[in-house]
Amino acid sequence: MTKIWRETGFVENDPWVIETDEVKATGEEKPLLGLDELIAKADESNEIGLGVLIKPADDVRRLEPYLSRLDIVAVAFPAFNDGRAFSHASLLRQRLGYANELRAVGDVLIDQVPLMLRVGIDSFAVSNATALKRLAENRLPAIPHHYQPAVRDAEAGKGYSWRRQAKPAA
């Protein structure tokens, strides 16, 4: 079973559904549209509050004219070793200025959650049993040092998250 997690805990009654041939949004649910489907819908209407699912091969820059109309962008992690969604998230947050919900969907593993948070992902569709258990216990793996800039600065130290200075010899 997939649950939605944010840093504040698990979310109840999340309305967003990734539609398939077997699963369709009904009632109060809202569909996460594919990129081409979203662009077609946005071009033919003035609807706001839309959601989109970005797959690894999609060009996330095509979303730029529609970002103000989106409530959520879901980035797909089809396998633990496919990190293109990290780049999508970083582009959305840093270059395109997207400020609404950014969700990781697919193969979301507990070891990747801190790194996903650093690139700006703020909600997670989690189905992995180990990840669900650790998130319920509020046990994220710790990453003490970061050497690259990110949406979120490193908590330790002041200044640039990517610039670390050696301590002077005593």
From TrEMBL:
Q: Name one Pfam family in it.
A: DUF934
Provide the species name.
Rhizobium sophoriradicis
Organism's domain of life?
Answer: Bacteria
Q: Which InterPro entries does the UniProt record give?
A: UCP030820 (IPR008318)
Q: Return the protein name.
A: Oxidoreductase
